[in-house]
Amino acid sequence: MKKVLSGNEAVAWAAARARAEVICVYPITPQTTIIEEISNLAAKGVFDPRILHVESEHSAMAGCIGAAYAGVRAFTATSSQGLALMHELLHWAAGGRLPIVMADVNRAMAPGWSIWTDQQDSLSQRDTGWMQFYCESNQEVFDTVIQAYRISEQVLIPCMVVLDAFVLSHTSEAVEIEDEELVRRYLPPFQPEARIDVNDPCSFGALLRPSVYQVVRKKLQDDMDRAIDVARAADEEWRKLTGRGYGLVERYRCEGAETLFVTTSTVASTARDVIDRMPGVGLVKLRLFRPFPYEEIRRALAPAKRVVIFDRNLSYGHHGIFAQEIKSALYSLPKRPEISCYSGGLGGREIGPDAIRAMIETAPKGEWAWV
Amino acid sequence: MKIGPAGDIQFDNEAEIPRTGRSLGTMAWNRTGSWRNIEPLYRDLTSPCVNACPAGNEVSGWLGLAAQGRFAEAVELLRTTNPFPAVCGRVCPHPCERACLRDRHGGPISVARVERFLGDWAIEHDVPVDAEPPNGRRVAIVGAGPAGLSAAFQLGRRGFDVTVFDENPKPGGLLRYGIPEFRLPKRVLDAELRVFDSLPVRFECGTRVDLRDLPRFERVILAIGRYRGRDLGVPGEERAIQGIEFLRKGADVGPRVAVIGGGSTAFDCARTLKRLGKDPVILYRRSEKEMPAFAHDVEEAFEEGIELRTMTVPVEILPHAIRCARTAPGAKPIPGSEFLLRVDAVIKAVGEVVDGELPEGVPACGDCAGGAGTVSDAIGRGRAMAVEIAARPPVATAESLNPAWIPSRPRPTFPRVSATARVLGFTEVNPDVPADLVIGEAKRCLSCGTCSFCHTCMNLCPDGAIRFTGSEYEIDYAWCKGCLICVQECPRGAMTAREVTNEKSPQR
Q: In this structure, what DSSP letter does residue A204 have?
């Protein structure tokens, strides 16, 4: 059924359709309407989760970890300071191989205090071992949360689905909510590989000697590598069932384009309009960030003469994070395109069509520039 | 996969290691105890209620047992410090409740109620007294009030043969002859006194005892209380009756009675008078807050409509009136404030002192020896005296020694500086003496009553049933036939004999 939904409402519907069993809730702007809508849906009987009100985001992730160890499907949502507060437990969820799905509404980190969008919060958690998807529309958000469970539960790695604050979270669009039956076919019940069982007591995550720790961590890395194909297949399967698929790296008007504009999230959506008016320029949208889709990025960008990368984030003392990773992926190419890196839009600052056009038309002096 | 020498798991290959981090064995091999440089240990703190109780009752201990319905055990624990819970549950002001830390979490525990319940329950269920077998040691106690009774109970439980003397017709002291029926029914006191039935304690009442008649007792304890009422020090006071006497035997008085004083005796008198249909008024020279009477007794007295006039002191007692004065803080009479109060009788209850002088050198406990004037205090002091006596073995006498083992060796005379020399100056009269002379004196000590490991018992035992462990002697009762040669021969009386009951016979 089609509904007019905000990005947050789309997240809530997806969690409902995925039949998340334990949802830990703690509010933070601009994520709070996710958990409010989840509560509404539960109250209306759309699904029947166990909702745990906890006292902080750290506890929210702890609750999800506990639920996942108990063998049930867990979900939570957060943003900026809340995501930062969960940090140590993000390491635990990934190292513990727990297929938790979490929605992160990209919001700038304080100080200054800001409720508007940028990508600093999710990218600060880049190295914890979570998968990360960046979404451009509310429909994509709905679809990706459901895909995330399928991928997560196959590779046993938690997954963060990221959407922009206010631009998606609080802006409504038409969203196709697939019905229960279809999602049930796509997403079978969670079958944990190991879980807490009072009849077979054990512990999880106990002391590992140096000789063993790296082996276990190598298994995480191996499964991350595997996850690229698993993610691609999951997206394909969803396309077959619903007609909607997004790929891991999307190429838009790239044939014959000498210049490629690379970005993520809603800036990609604005860029489409700009690219439509600029022949010879294509858009490459990065959707899956972790695991990093090296091959697809190399394939997409190798043909270009010039690549312009826009980051709505910044690693202080260096430059945009997507830019760094993309440049490192292109290093092995025999012929590398010229690369321009821009960071901007921090704290929700507008990145409109003019800014995008300006980035494409001018090259920064030096490693990178602000926009 | 196998268990390594340290106890940890050793994997044969990487495939064996679970990616989920699920444990495959125990972590007990990792002795984290080696990391500590500070450690916890169990040690109790004293509960404030136990600390506040003048009798040292283990209040929190028996409350816990009572909470579990283990009443008999609670009574047993109670009796280790106090044989009279039914009495105390009724008359004690329970300072434990004032110390209770539950006061800020809903209010202090009603310890008095629980204690009274346990006392009544013990009476109803005839809970036996936990006692040691008789040891034949005789103790006399003069005074069958709470202090004397408490001492008698604690000694009796420890096997002592106790005789309690009292000049009154029945035991109880102030419990019977002071505290009125409405605070402590006599039937409760009589029921609780039955704890002595199973103990080697006997009472000789209606007897005024002469201490010179008591040599057959190993010890004598005085517990005669304070029964002589203080005087007011005002003219005409011979017209006033002592409150303590009024409570003991009553008096024929007219309707309007003034009671002078602000303590328990004064209030007991006033409330008794009310119940006898009289019209009492209490006169107290200080403020209400300063009255020594227990708060609940004062509260109950007010509810009963007892009249109280504070800051009032008698100046003269007349045939049908008292001349009173108002007082300033500090009980000083205010000049010019005098007034006349018409009364038919006056009772004075301004404190009690010991009747007569206590003989020197005789241990005394309770109110006659500086007690606080409450039942629980007297019980605590009586018990302390009993425990102290029981802790010490009997005193060795000349009869304890076996002189056959004691060669006579004279005590040396120690030199002094000659008298003519020493008056010439201020040097010490007694100079230092050689160490071996002094040590020789130490060697002459017979160690009366205390084993000095001379091996006499061991060497003489015909069955070789005594052996020395290096620090003490052990008797192997499987072989000891009780000839008592060891007891007879012990030079210093460090051995004694006891009857063997069937339970103790090793043949059984």
A: B
Query: CA Rg, chain B, in Å?
Result: 33
Q: In angstroms, rounded to a whole number, what is the distance separating the alpha carbons of residues A219 and B19?
A: 6
pLDDT of B505 strictly over 60: no
Nearest-angstrom CA–CA distance, A247 and A251: 9
Euclidean distance between CA atoms A349 and A342, whole angstroms: 14
Mean pLDDT of B127-138: 91
Spell out which residues of chain B touch residue A216, defining contact as CB-CB under 8 Å. Answer: 17-19, 21
| Cis ω before A279 (30° cut-off from 0) | no
Contacts A220 to B, Cβ<8 Å = 19
Query: In 3D, which of A77, A95, A109, A91 has the Cα closest to residue A7?
Result: A77
Distances (CA, A) of A368 to A315, A339, A342: 12, 9, 6
Q: Look up residue B36 and give its two tokens.
A: 């500590």
**Is there a contact between A230 and A151 (Cβ–Cβ < 8 Å)?**
yes
User: Of A193, A207, A212, which is closest to B27 when you measure between CB atoms?
Assistant: A207
pTM higher than 0.80: no
- pLDDT tens readout for residues B202-238: 999 998 888 887 878 889 999 999 999 999 999 999 9
Residue with tokens 């994509």: A140
Bridge partner list, A50: A22
Mean pLDDT of A216-245: 98
pLDDT at B131 over 70: yes
Beta strands in A55-158 (DSSP E): 74-78, 101-106, 131-134
Nearest partner of B242 among B209, B266, B206, B217, judged by Cα: B266
Minimal CA–CA distance to B244: which of B349, B131, B376? B349
Q: Is B68 helix (H, G, I), strand (E, B) or coil?
A: coil
Q: What percent of chain A has pLDDT over 90?
A: 96
> How far is the C-alpha of B370 from the C-alpha of B226, rounded, in Å?
10
Query: Which tokens in the block code for residue B115?
Result: 């204690």
CB atoms within 10 A of CB B303: 8
DSSP A214-250: HHHHHHHHHHHHHHHHHHHHHHHHHHHHHS----SEE
Q: What are the residue ranges of helices labelled H in B53-145?
A: 59-67, 71-79, 85-91, 95-99, 111-124
> Minimal Cα distance from A192: which residue of B?
B20
Specify whether the CB–CB gap between A162 and A126 falls below 8 A: no
The single-letter DSSP state of residue B444 is T
**B216 touching chain A per CB within 8 A:** no
Rounded to an integer, what distance in angstroms lies between the CA atom of residue B407 and that of residue B403? 8
Q: What is the DSSP string of B232-252?
A: --STTGGGSEEHHHHHHH---
Element (H, E) at A165: none
- C-alpha dihedral, B373 to B379 to B382 to B388, nearest 10°: -130
Where would I find the H helices in B100-214?
111-124, 146-157, 174-177, 186-192
> What is the spatial distance between Cα A197 and Cα B455, in angstroms, rounded to a whole number?
68
DSSP letter string over B281-325?
EEE-SS-GGG--S-HHHHHHHHHTT-EEE-SEEEEEE-SSEEEEE
Q: What is the pLDDT of residue A93?
A: 98
Q: What is the ipTM of this complex?
A: 0.77
Nearest to B352 by CA among B230, B262, B267: B230
User: How close is the nearest chain A Cα to the Cα of B28, in Å?
Assistant: 11
A-interface mutation test, from B20, B24, B32, most A Cβ less than 10 A away: B20
